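Fold it.
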Amino acid sequence: MKVGIIGCGYVGLVTGVGFALKGHKVTSVEIDKSRVGQLTKGIVPFHEPGVQKGLKSVLKQGNIRISSSMDDIADCEVILICVQTPPQPDGVINLQILESATRNLVSVLEQSPRLRTVVVRSTVIPGTTDKLVAPILQGNSSALAKKTAIAFNPEFLREGSALQDFLNPDRIVIGTKSGMAKKMLKKLFLPFKASIVWTTPSTAELAKYASNTLLATLISFSNEIARVCERTPDTDVEDVLGVVHRDRRFSFPEGKGSLTAGILSYLKAGCGFGGSCLPKDLSALIAYARSVDQETPLLQAVATVNVGQSLRIIDMVSKALGGLEKRKVAVLGVAFKGGTDDLRESPGLRIVDALLSKQAQVFIYDPLVKPVALEGYKNKRVTIASKLMEALQYADACIVTSNSPEFKTLRRWMKQEKNNHKVIIDGRRILKVSGDLESNYYAIGRARKPV
């Protein structure tokens, strides 16, 4: 099929490359001409495993083209809108970019007599597809309304495995009231093995928020249990949640054994959640519920626990060092998690900001984040390290805020005699520490043994 993609950001690019890898002919439109130039050369401006390799492959095959002109998607059978819906200070999402893209699309659709389906893939609150997008595309022209179907198709992509998630989805959710849309989207998703869940646009829109806020809730729940463990002798949140993980309701038979549900990876204590989705979607759902006069005390508590987790880590390192003023602290991992370079809503950066407010000197290291992305932190009290040992060299303490595999090598560093007085705050529970190394080792959710 001829597929058009509006927006070559994170979701749009993965979607375009994914459909092209499945054999569709894709035209992706991006208004940022410098990004168009990069992508045309096969250069992806963010880190996401497999995407750059995939882009180069489909460019070579001729299955994708990158353009800055909407006119180039006029003849596409399916057009997916993948633009940002950024949060406002009150949590309400800003729909201006989506509205603008939709209005610009109208004149393009009028150029061709082709029947086509327009799919909203941006994350939006319930009612957006029906009450904003559909009236723009269908409201002013009966002819356009007859040849244009509307649908909503949420993405469930995890940063660090987004392309694989796209190519091998666990479910495909499509909200539409149009028979024509169903027919065309069945054809679009024919190369995929997952079953399609057909529903209304509003249900699909709300399901995306429900899915992400559940994940956020599991993380905050885990961190609250971790806080209880820290005050309870002879307990460790890893062991406590490990027992919960073994509940048969979280697993299913597989041969002679069983497989645990992937969702359990979110039932794990750490620094809190960040990134482009969970914080934004949690705030947006709270704001939407408020707009329909519905209180959300549980969801608000999830947000409160998440922000408080970073402050708890600051309290932990402050007590271990006897204060933070003029102390040297390495923060390892400032992307919101390992396997990505995304700094949005990063717990690591919240910790950096808090350390600076306490007058500490900070050394930042992340194996995937480019120094240019941290330019705003360059001052006399912040050093951007290019290597792990460079960040640790002068540090009185280090805080592990990302689950990057490289940080597991810290055990070897801890064993060196010159470092045995230095404090380790394991905010991601990636280290296995015992014996003499425990004296200066502090971990989320682990009761301290008497020294």
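The mean pLDDT is 94.
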